[in-house]
Amino acid sequence: MRKTCVSCRAVLLVVLCCIHAVSLLGQSFRVHLPADARPLQSGGERATSPGPLDGRLLLLLSNNFSAEPRTQINDSLRSQNVFGLTLDGAAPGSVVVVDDKATGYPHAHLSEVTPGTYNVQVVLNLYETFHMADGRTIKLAPDRGEGQKWNRAPGNLYSKPFKITIGANGKPTQDVDVALTEVMPAIAPIADSEFVRRIRIQSQPLSKFWGRPVFVSATVLVPAGFDQHPNARFPLMLFEDHFNDGFAEFRTTPPDPNLKPDYSDRFHLEGYNRIQQQEGYNFYKTWTAKDFPRFLVVKIQTANAFYDDSYAVDSANLGPYGEAIETELIPAVEKKFQGIGQGWARFVYGGSTGGWEAMAAQVFYPDHYNGAFIACPDPVDFHAYTNIDIYHDKNAYFTPGANIQMEQPAMRDYLGHMIITQRGVNQFEAALGDHGRSGEQYDIWQAVFSPVGADGYPAAIFDKQTGVIDPAVAKYWQDHYDLTAKLQREWPQLQPKLEGKLHVYVGSDDTYMLNNAVYLLQDFLDTAKPAAHAEVAYGPRAEHCWNGDPKLSNAYSRLHYSTMYLPKIMQRIQQTAPKGADLKSWRY
After folding, report:
1. What's the CATH code, domain 196-381+482-504+561-576?
2. Predicted local distance difference test score (pLDDT) of residue 227
3. How far apart are CA 564 and CA 558, in angstroms?
4. Contact 150, 158 (CB under 8 A)
């Protein structure tokens, strides 16, 4: 039921003055858009005057009162409720009703919410209109420096949380009014330090593709004595990772003695924050030790309108990120930070998303790198897209039987207990955004690997509601981004460039079943002719993200990426550096 729109200020006063919980039985929420709301312009900046709003409106209901609901939405068992709908040209000052038609998770509909007391909050993740070089016009949430996080993206609108009571039997007694009175603040830039430096450049091919200026950047860990050795030239280690704004694993001061210890649910460790600080300080001491090799560690930042990372390849939907990284960003880093600038002196490593990127960078650009250390990679063979075979399965959500359909798992713990189903994780993404705009994992795989769909957005590999797989899209994936298939097709040309360069590590009980694809990759590498001389290793009972250390658990080894592969890297340099190569200036 709609009522005449009142001003946001009046609504806010009503909300703040309500000291009793609203009784809600079935459910209709009236969201009041600010009368002075300003849309996003090109570049993610808000317009100077009010105008129609595009975006994903997210209604959040949480029975955990320890924090704002917007911080409690995820694909874990602890997730609170989210219900989403898309706004397309909504007028400032208007009222949007969120009811049972909204797409929800973990409950599909508002009427299914369990009776009880909840904090209610609404977030509007604003979209920008992109006029693409190929003539498409699409609406997406641009990254605004936060790493594609809707719950803290600068400029997004949200409401202050307040309590309501949801009753039983689906019988509403009154609507709930919510006012979007708050704006998420800009993110302050981070200053460079003695060891951590930054570089940001505009990419010409990406800017052309997107029809607006697009920037790529990198955070660089420079070696001890960098400023005192202007004539030294350094090897480069590309550390593929998600969006980040620094090196959290590097700390120049001892652990904080007053730090209150926390508990890591993932690693079942008390005081893991203290462990992280101590390991970070240990890394600093190793990094600055007299006999430690001097090199650059580079983390690229390619957050975009679909995800916090580009997957470091050229893509029909994301654009030529591979070209931008390899021909613009890496050369710019090497020029500014005294890199050697040759393939024998570049190595790439990373885990999970970074693991797939490490392998893709080495395979798509085989002359650019002298070795890839590929930990717990995202699916490197789409016969095992987690546990889905997109080439032979008909449905991503269910395994068919004679008289029953079995739900497919998407996540498990190291004992094999299912954490969430394939249908569940995609329901979560569907609540956050339609047309592949959730900013989450399956949607970015689809955006990177798929062709452009008829609607201008990424072509769906499977239907989000039914799970039915599109074989034509699967064939496109196979021909372009299935890394094992690429090796099989092009091995005679690739083998001389990849021999001895591929090092793959994964836990045999990976949380996302990523080990399944590695088994298939290994089947090829072990029998390839000519021989690959690759390394593949598995961590027994290890979950995501085992990275090849047989002596330490994930809790510790994940903090050692920038040192753990160094012995193999140094050996590779000695074996393969060309005659006359600089092997001394960086060993001061």
Report:
1. 3.40.50
2. 97
3. 10
4. no
